[in-house]
Structures are given as structure tokens and as C-alpha cells.
Write a structure and sequence with these properties.
This protein has no helices and eleven strands. By secondary structure, it is mainly β.
């Protein structure tokens, strides 16, 4: 069964850092584009960052550029989101998503990130 499990969320002060992890299982991870989305309280989902199946190409949203970095380890079936200089506006549920070339999509259950003093 295809599955994505996020971890690493928590409460952090403004200016702090967190690293989110997403563990993939049950599908051929190396063939999937991976993304991180977030959903702030009461708002819709926002694409935060994406990375190609090989890991050679990645991009991040303008709202997090220079602060967040996405990476993946295909040997471990893992994708990461390194977040630094966190702001209260980064507070959200962060979700991991996998997409195949033929439009098959897998979502994780999400991990809560709260940035507050």
C-alpha cells in the first residue's frame, strides 16, 4: 500500500529552524516527483516546494525562497524540507505529496508546524 508519513513538525520560536521528513513506502519512490504543501488554519493549500524524481531539479515558492530547501534521498525513500528563519506566517499543516508521470497522486497525513513566541 502506497504511503507517505511526515514527521518533524512542532512548535518553534520566530527565527528558528525545523527539518521536516517524509518517509515513502509501497510505491517506486525514485519515479515520483515529490512536493511539500502547507495549509494554514482556515486557508487553502499552498505549494511550498517541489523536487524532481532524480533530485536534480527543485523549486520553492516565492514566500519561502531563501529560507526553505527541499531535498530527497532516493536510497532511503525520503524527502526533506529544511526550514529556517521561520515566521508566524509559516504556521500550517505541512503535507508531503508524490506524483507519478501518469498523474497518480499520493498524500501524507501532514505534520503541524507552529511558529510562535
Amino acid at each position: 500500500q502506497a504511503r507517505l508519513v511526515e514527521s518533524g513538525g512542532g512548535v518553534v520560536q520566530p527565527g528558528g529552524s525545523l527539518r521536516l521528513s517524509c518517509a515513502a513506502s509501497g510505491f517506486p519512490f525514485i519515479y515520483y516527483t515529490m512536493s511539500w504543501y502547507r495549509q494554514p488554519p482556515g486557508e487553502g493549500q499552498e505549494l511550498v516546494a517541489g523536487i524532481s524524481s532524480s533530485g536534480n531539479t527543485s523549486n520553492v515558492a516565492d514566500s519561502v525562497k531563501g529560507r526553505f530547501t527541499i531535498s530527497r534521498d532516493n536510497a532511503k525513500n525520503m524527502v526533506y524540507l529544511q526550514m529556517s528563519s521561520l515566521k508566524p506566517s509559516d504556521t500550517a499543516v505541512y503535507l508531503c505529496r508524490a506524483d507519478s508521470d501518469d498523474s497518480y497522486t499520493i498524500w501524507g497525513q501532514g505534520t503541524q508546524v507552529t511558529v510562535s513566541s
